[in-house]
Amino acid sequence: MAARGFDHVVWAVHDVEAAANRLEAAGFTVTPRARHPWGTENRLVQLDGFFIELLTIGAAAEIPPASDRFFSFGGFNRDFLERGEGASMLVMESGSAEDDRRAFERAGLHVYEPFSFGREQTRPDGSIRKVGFDLTFVRNPSDPLHGFFTCHNLYPENFWSADYQRHENGATVLDTVVVVCEEPAEQHIFYAAFTGEREMRASSLGIAIETPRGRLHLMPPSAFEALYGVPAPALMPGGSAIAALAVAGADRAAVAQSLARQGINAVESREGLVLPAADGFGLALVFA
Fold first, then answer.
1. Residue 243 in contact with residue 284, Cβ under 8 Å?
2. Please, which residues bridge with residue 41 across strands?
3. Which helix (H) or strand (E) holds 34?
4. Which residues of 232-247 are buried (b: 16+ CB within 10 A; e: fewer)?
5. What's the topology of domain 173-287?
6. What is the pLDDT of residues 3-57, one digit of tens each?
7. Which of 32, 191, 204, 288 lies 20 to 30 Å from 181 when distance is taken between CA atoms?
8. CB 263 within 8 A of CB 249
9. Cα 206–271–7 angle (5° rounding)?
């Protein structure tokens, strides 16, 4: 089974422009707004092979219903936003949707019907190019409140842009995705299948899985608060939360000074400079 790196994180927000403004204030370049045919709209932050997808529900959105076989991307994020904002979905890279499906089925996971889509994307120079993706949605029985899928980028040469990958803060790559849960050990079977990584490191701070692009760290609330210096997200009994996203490459001192000048709260922690989730649309953002 091939190991998969992180492709992107879906960050569901009520006001995508306000969220984009906050990321721009933190020194990120954010792409123009785009609309999906199933009712969602997004703006992106591109790093090196990984991106953050700010996502909201569009006005008068026509969202297809979900079923046990069909995963409704728009419906899932609409329902997520009814509970609150934050990271709603984790996405791993894919080289083949068919291979992903077979691997997930062998692992005993529930896999939804194949899903592919394409659209036109505006590049920084104003040119229009086609992008397309094959998505393989899978269910995590231990975490039904979040979505999980792999993404096969069919036209990477059209999707990625060097201009969009340049950020004033200097950030270049994903460092860590942090998932908070009461019992990390109960999640490891799913994440081993989802990432394709069987090797993981367990400690008193949780379970760490090194993927080809970024680290996944599963940890209890107490460990999160000790490492990141901000409150852990509230959890439902047996639940999980995608609590933080850490990026690397930024000049932390310069970022801290810039945020202070703008009156934006940031917390120095053991793991880096943290923009707390309580101030920023439900997801802590960390400059590692």
1. yes
2. 35, 56
3. strand 34-35
4. bbebeeebbbbbbbbb
5. 2,3-Dihydroxybiphenyl 1,2-Dioxygenase; domain 1 (3.10.180)
6. 999 999 999 999 999 999 999 999 999 999 998 888 899 999 999 999 999 999 9
7. 288
8. no
9. 75
